[in-house]
Write a structure and sequence with these properties.
CATH architecture: Sandwich
Helix content: under 10%
CATH class: Mainly Beta
Shape: globular
Radius of gyration: 17 Å
Largest sheet: 9 strands, antiparallel
Strand content: over 45%
Oligomer: single chain
Number of domains: 1
CATH topology: Jelly Rolls
Order of helices and strands: HEEEEEEEEE
CATH superfamily: Galactose-binding domain-like
Structural class: mainly beta
Length: 188
């Protein structure tokens, strides 16, 4: 299973009531290892603008932590939705902005997490955008940013707005399946 599909399942099972809000009103800390990370807010250097952060508690944390929100999909059904935020990292294994739409039975209808363009290492502030269509049967929209592995990640200036159909949807690149079976005798 690809990591982004696994992450979708991890995030789909996140229970906001059981997650830690880490002092960031409206946001919850979740993921498959939130206890391995700290989060909070701090001022962006030299400004009065606040950013949220996720920081690994040790040099080799396992899993991911995400700072996220969940909202009802009702107002956005049938629309194309754009999530954007500025992200900055310090020695980050990988950081991502992500957006997901779930159906009424908690099934993942749409999902994108920047796996094809992760933020890694040490970076300055840069704007990232994720765009998905919200299907008519959409029930919950989940979004946020996460850190996988070591390092630190900050995000600021989140925006979640409907956009026109002329704005391209974010999709994971896929490679075509092989045309013939391979290594059926396991001799390679």
């Amino acid at each position: 299973m690809k990591f982004y599909a696994m992450l979708g399942l991890v995030l789909a099972t996140a229970i906001p009531a059981a997650a830690d809000d880490c002092g960031v009103p409206g946001w919850i800390l979740s993921g498959d290892n939130p206890q391995g990370y700290s989060c909070g807010t701090e001022l962006v250097a030299g400004t009065s603008v606040k950013s949220a952060f996720i920081k690994a508690k040790d040099e080799r944390p396992q899993g991911i932590a995400t700072l996220m929100q969940q909202i009802a999909a009702d107002p956005y059904r049938g629309q194309r939705l754009s999530l954007s935020a500025d992200i900055k990292t310090l020695d980050a294994a990988t950081a991502y902005l992500w957006l997901r739409v779930d159906g009424p039975n908690h099934d993942i209808l749409k999902f994108y997490n920047m796996e094809d363009r992760p933020v890694t290492g040490t970076t300055d502030w840069k704007l990232y955008t994720v765009v998905l269509d919200v299907p008519p049967e959409g029930a919950v929209i989940s979004f946020g940013f996460f850190l996988r592995g070591h390092g630190e990640a900050w995000a600021k200036g989140f925006s979640l707005v409907p956009v026109g159909k002329d704005v391209p949807v974010s999709v994971m690149p896929s490679s075509p399946p092989p045309k013939t079976p391979a290594n059926l005798d396991f001799d390679q």
